[in-house]
């Protein structure tokens, strides 16, 4: 679930301004760089991936979660002013990589929102209830990719995304790793179960093509349309059904021709039930490529490039966005992106939207 005053600050610069190289689309790169409304407090080690938890009763008290990737890293919790909330932040995690949130999971007698983070060095997923950040996995995490080749980094956790089926109400996590097979089984999807007051996981499918060029880290789910997208770095963005009952056919591969190198963080902005934008980080160019969420008319899996926009982020890895009005600073939503300097940038969606349509 994704839930917005405006300070539109634009700086003209030649930074990152290049002619895109694409065989089927002539694109002009805009030289204006969008500045964040604010920058978060810095973490101890190395920021990587953010998530947004929407407080459905009081959106102004929503939270930003962000990983600090190191062998003694952490899962940081920030308020909407970018201030670290020490009482909620989890320290001493073993190289936490990516994080996502889910809503209204039936955990025995209670219904909880939750955060899930990949802990690379333990090969485990860590689950915490929201907003109190209490462990709900038994305290040690839940190992995944069991039986895979550890020496080939096939168990080194990277990406994570949650999905709740609107029809069955089943909740899932979709997990990626540093490396994996090229036989269409790179991602593993687990159904979440309640087991005596804590989370347990059942493997329900293995799916997803992989080029073998680099790695797969960014994974994002379009909850209302039921699709999962992931960045096959240096190759493209792949699209599948998020519901395992709909099969493992690849629906699309797009964004292949005009990224500088790595395809990174994926964020999905919802304008309506069926329309919006998919934003993907072009990490080395400090840009985000914008695609239509709905595809083309009569061709929902044809995601042509709309525009590349420049943000002040440096080497952005993970990102997240919501369309929900959170505060006077973010009246149409909030876009959060990791940046070098051990920080996260908070952007008003209105600033991005103006640039997309400029």
UniProtKB/TrEMBL annotation:
InterPro entries: 6-blade_b-propeller_TolB-like, B-propeller_Phytase. It comes from the Bacteria. Residues 19-356 form the BPP domain. Transmembrane segments: none annotated. Gene3D superfamilies: TolB, C-terminal domain. Pfam families: Phytase (PF02333). This is Phytase.
């Amino acid at each position: 679930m994704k839930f917005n005053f405006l300070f539109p600050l634009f700086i003209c610069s030649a930074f990152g301004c290049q002619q895109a190289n694409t065989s089927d689309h002539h694109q002009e790169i805009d030289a204006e760089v969008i500045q964040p409304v604010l920058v978060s407090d810095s973490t101890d080690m190395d920021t990587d991936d953010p998530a947004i938890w929407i407080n459905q009763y009081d959106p102004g008290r929503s939270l930003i979660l962000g990983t600090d990737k190191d062998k003694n890293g952490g899962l940081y919790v920030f308020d909407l002013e970018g201030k670290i909330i020490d009482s909620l932040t989890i320290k001493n995690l073993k190289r936490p990589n990516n994080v996502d949130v889910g809503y209204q999971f039936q955990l025995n007698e209670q219904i909880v929102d939750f955060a899930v983070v990949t802990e690379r060095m333990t090969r485990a997923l860590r689950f915490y209830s929201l907003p109190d950040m209490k462990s709900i996995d038994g305290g040690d995490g839940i190992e995944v990719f069991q039986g895979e080749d550890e020496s080939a980094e096939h168990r080194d956790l990277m990406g994570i995304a949650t999905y709740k089926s609107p029809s069955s109400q089943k909740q899932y996590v979709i997990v990626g790793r540093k490396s994996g097979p090229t036989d269409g089984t790179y991602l593993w999807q687990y159904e979440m179960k309640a087991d005596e007051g804590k989370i347990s996981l059942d493997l329900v499918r293995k799916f997803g093509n992989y080029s073998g060029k680099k790695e797969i880290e960014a994974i994002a789910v379009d909850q209302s349309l039921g699709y999962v997208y992931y960045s096959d770095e240096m190759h493209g963005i792949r699209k599948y059904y998020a519901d395992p009952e709909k099969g493992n056919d690849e629906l699309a591969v797009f964004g292949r021709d005009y990224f500088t190198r790595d395809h990174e963080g994926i964020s999905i902005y919802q304008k309506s039930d069926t329309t919006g934008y998919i934003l993907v980080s072009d990490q080395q160019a400090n840009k985000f490529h914008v695609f239509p969420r709905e595809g083309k008319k009569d061709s929902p899996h044809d995601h042509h490039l709309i525009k590349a926009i420049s943000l002040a982020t440096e080497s952005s890895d993970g990102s997240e966005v919501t369309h929900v009005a959170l505060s006077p600073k973010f009246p149409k939503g909030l876009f959060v992106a990791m940046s070098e300097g051990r920080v996260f940038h908070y952007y008003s969606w209105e600033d991005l939207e103006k640039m997309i349509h400029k």
